[in-house]
Amino acid sequence: MKQIQLAGFLFLAIALISCGTTKKTGTTMTKNEEAQKQLEHFPKEKKGYKRYVILLPAKGAEEADLKVELMPGKVMPTDCNTRSLNGKIAEKDLQGWGYTYYEFSSNGTVVSTMMACPDSKKTERFVGARTEQIRYNSKLPVVVFVPDGYELKYRIWNAGGTSDAAVK
């Protein structure tokens, strides 16, 4: 009797292991795979630009409360002064598809405070340009073209609960 139970247990274990290691043959795609497929429609790299692609994880109904902040900039030597890079992010339409991609442009000039720094030691820091907040959408990739020599960072913003305004 114990041998039959042991054999049954082994058979069940092998069946479960084999089910766990088989490949999916279905045609359903995850949101990230859909976004990856949509990437084919966006322009490839442009001369003098790098193409940054952000694939956002699916968040369901929570996506309505989320924003993506695009933060272009450049790593450069800085002192104690606060600096900001001149530049802007332009929204571009992908003709025929209705998708949006973004392009950062800058003339490279930097605005800085003029404080006297006691130690004139320079450190390499990311100096950002004006940021842009866009809608969180996990169904499409976020594509941003940034000139060579610049880079792109991003962060996700989450709106808190709503509050009622006071009536006076």
From TrEMBL:
It comes from the Bacteria. GO terms for molecular function: serine-type endopeptidase inhibitor activity. Belongs to the protease inhibitor I11 (ecotin) family. This is Ecotin. It comes from Niabella drilacis (strain DSM 25811 / CCM 8410 / CCUG 62505 / LMG 26954 / E90). The lineage of its organism: Bacteria, Pseudomonadati, Bacteroidota, Chitinophagia, Chitinophagales.
